[in-house]
Write a structure and sequence with these properties.
702 residues; Immunoglobulin-like; five-stranded antiparallel sheet; 7 helices
């Protein structure tokens, strides 16, 4: 209800903008706003999009401001806006509803009830989530009913503080209106909705478009286009005249409100069940827009109720073979219907019809039999009898078959051949039978030669000696078998044809082999696997790739291995390798790669150390510069160690792997000097030993 009511206002807002050039400046998350331009004033309507915004507006009030639209373009939000009323718009109190509005009006009463009606939340005994659900439903309904009431009554909209009529406009000017809430004490702030209004273009009343009628039996459905009218009106009234349009009476007591949700395609309609068949009636529709103003009447549409009740059909129908002819007879009581107009006999070659009439004019209503002088020979002729009235309404009897006496079966089908393509489509062919009453063929299938046959032709038997059948190839079945039986129109069946064997193409990939275990040693990586269980396997390959590579390479063809083990001696220490198996069958189908495993070559973590560690002391700067050589490529850093002679070396600094020098600026002169050494720390966790220390003595100038 909530979404339907508000969507109704939004749809009207869109139509209003298109027709009267009332232009919103932006899309507000919290409000919809629209204007109705009259010759002497402008009516502004707004609608909060949620219960929370509506509740805030009811408490703190709505602020509507207006500014003149300047001729020069600019930021319209910075115009000198003035409030249209000194105080915010707030809903009526209960006392004001009684004195300022007609509470006997349903829309007015609904608006007041939405604001001040007693809550029923918790009276059902619900608690927890159930209680929250009740509260949400009640809040949604209150909000929805309030917006709907504001659309159907100007008094309700005024009482809800959702409407303002601005009578101080100058038609030679253009205006910008904006609406927003005063914020709550808890800091809930809404955004602002803007609207540009051109008072020089008054809004003309619209009429409901595209009315039409659907005439029924003692009913008339009054319809009008949903697409053409949903953006113009929020509700409707339907009026009816029984005296040629002299006077009209309203059929609905309250305005008709329809769902406006997206996806609804059925036109708006009202069914009038107070109709006498044969009498003409006139109908017109008037719409109510979102400003609670009625438009113009639609064009008048005329219609009459129609008699759609046909006489009862005949019963106990027979069709008797009387020597190349059929006599159709039946029972019926035509006196039950005063408008009974007679009988029509129909014939078809199928029990499902269609049935062609066998006479131009109906048989008299007293008739109880009819002879078909020219039935189709050698075939079953199907008959029905239609009961008609003077309005051409009819009822059809049950179907009866006229069967010629024939006990001779067709000859056995011969020459059955067939083949299956790569998609599983099997095409069968055989020699055509020569019997004149041949109805068609039944085709049977079996998955094994000695198994029970299953019929794969059901209702419509093929008359041509050809049949196609689709089978699924993703199964273990390698062959299927077929046979054919000929049928005549008296359901006499021939002998089974000779059995045909059709070989199916192989589309089932073999079962995957599976790596079950591995061992990494100094001598390489040992792999263990379980072979595929498929019987048609012709090849199994062991695949390998390095961890940072996307390319798989064949490591070995292990098809003929007697033992399901393999030793990979080509691995490098510390490098990760991924292994998988791939199996192929005799049709060239691949199992796809098996579940892979990731294994690293055995690594003791020891890496080579730096070479040629040297250094030089700079007396003027009192610093010592180290340099060294290191050739291996990879990701690593250097750690420089230092110690006073005779003490343990300790880490001094970390040097990036791209550098081969380090300057120590923290020297303190002492009598013993310093020892330096360097260690390599690799990103994979490996590291070198400390290199041979390099000794520094200040007395020697080093």
């Amino acid at each position: 209800m909530k979404s339907t009511t508000f969507f109704c206002f939004l749809l009207f807002l869109g139509g209003l903008q298109a027709q009267t050039q009332q232009v919103p400046m932006d899309t507000s998350l919290h409000y919809g706003i629209a204007a109705w331009v009259k010759p002497e004033s402008v009516v502004i309507r707004w609608a909060p999009r949620s219960y929370a915004v509506w509740r805030l507006g009811n408490k703190t009030g709505y602020v509507l401001e207006r500014a003149e639209l300047p001729e020069k373009a600019g930021d319209l939000r910075k115009l000198p806006y003035q409030r249209v009323e000194a105080q915010p718009f707030k809903p009526y109190t209960l006392a004001e509803w009684k004195t300022k509005a007609d509470t006997s009006n349903v829309a007015v009463g609904t608006a007041a009830q939405a604001l001040y009606g007693e809550s029923v939340v918790g009276k059902s005994g619900a608690s927890g989530i159930g209680l929250l659900h009740e509260q949400y439903n009640e809040q949604s309904l209150r909000h929805a009913f309030a917006l709907q009431a504001a659309e159907l009554s100007a008094q309700a909209a005024d009482g809800l503080a959702l409407r303002y009529e601005d009578k101080s406009v100058d038609r030679s000017k253009q205006y910008v209106y904006r609406i927003f809430n005063l914020p709550s004490s808890k800091g809930f702030v809404t955004d602002t909705a803007y609207l540009i209004v051109y008072p020089e273009f008054p809004r003309e009343a619209q009429k409901v478009l595209s009315p039409y009628l659907e005439e029924g039996d003692q009913t008339i459905k009054v319809c009008w286009s949903r697409i053409a009218n949903r953006s113009l009106f929020s509700a409707f009234h339907v009026e009816k005249s029984s005296d040629g349009g002299k006077t009209f009476q309203r059929l609905n007591q309250y305005p008709l409100v329809f769902g406006f949700n997206e996806g609804q395609n059925e036109d708006f309609n009202l069914v009038d069940s107070m109709v006498m068949n044969g009498q003409e009636y006139q109908y017109r529709i008037i719409g109510i827009n979102s400003f609670a103003e009625e438009g113009l009447y639609s064009d008048i549409v005329k219609g009459t109720g129609k008699d759609l009740n046909a006489p009862l059909p005949p019963t106990e129908l027979w069709a008797r073979d009387i020597g190349q002819k059929f006599q159709i007879s039946w029972k019926a009581d035509h006196s039950l219907f005063k408008d009974h107009a007679g009988w029509i006999v129909g014939r078809s070659m199928s029990a499902n019809g269609p049935f062609a009439p066998l006479m131009e004019k109906p048989l008299p209503k007293e008739a109880r039999s009819f002879v078909d002088e020219n039935p189709v020979p050698l075939m079953t002729n199907y008959y029905v009898v239609f009961a008609l009235d003077d309005q051409n309404n009819f009822n059809m009897s049950p179907v009866v078959g006229g069967i010629h006496h024939d006990a001779e079966a067709p000859s056995k089908p011969t020459g059955l051949t067939g083949k299956c393509d790569s998609t599983g489509l099997i095409t069968l062919q055989w020699e055509a039978g020569k019997e004149p009453d041949l109805m068609g063929y039944r085709v049977f299938i079996a998955t094994e030669k000695e198994r029970e046959w299953f019929q794969i032709t059901r209702e419509n038997l093929p008359l041509e000696p050809r049949f196609e059948h689709q089978v699924k190839l993703n199964s273990l079945t390698e062959k299927v078998f077929f046979t054919v039986v000929a049928m005549d129109f008296h359901f006499n069946a021939s002998e089974f044809s000779n059995t045909l064997e059709v070989v199916l193409p192989d589309t089932i990939a073999p079962e995957k082999a599976l790596i079950t275990d591995y061992t990494a040693t100094e001598n390489g990586i040992f792999l263990y696997w379980a072979n595929s269980g498929s019987k048609d396997v012709v090849k199994t390959l062991l695949l390998r790739r390095e961890a940072d590579s996307q390319v798989w390479k064949t490591l070995a063809d292990v098809t003929a291995f007697k033992k399901t083990t393999y030793q990979d001696t080509t691995v490098r220490k510390g490098i990760f390798y991924e292994y998988a198996l791939e199996t192929f069958d005799d049709a060239g189908l691949s199992s796809g790669k098996s579940l892979s495993i990731m294994v690293a070559g055995a690594d003791n973590g020891v890496r080579p150390g730096v070479q040629s560690l040297q250094g030089q002391y700079d007396k003027s700067k009192k610093q010592f510069s180290l340099n060294w050589e290191y050739a291996p490529a990879g990701r690593y850093n250097f750690v420089v160690y230092r110690a006073i002679k005779g003490q343990i070396l300790e880490p001094l600094a970390q040097v990036d792997g791209n550098q081969r020098t380090y300057t120590d600026q923290t020297l303190v002169s002492n009598g013993d000097g310093y020892n330096y050494a360097v260690k390599v720390i690799w990103a994979d966790g490996g590291e070198s030993d400390l290199c041979d220390p390099f000794e520094v003595r200040f007395s020697r100038g080093k």
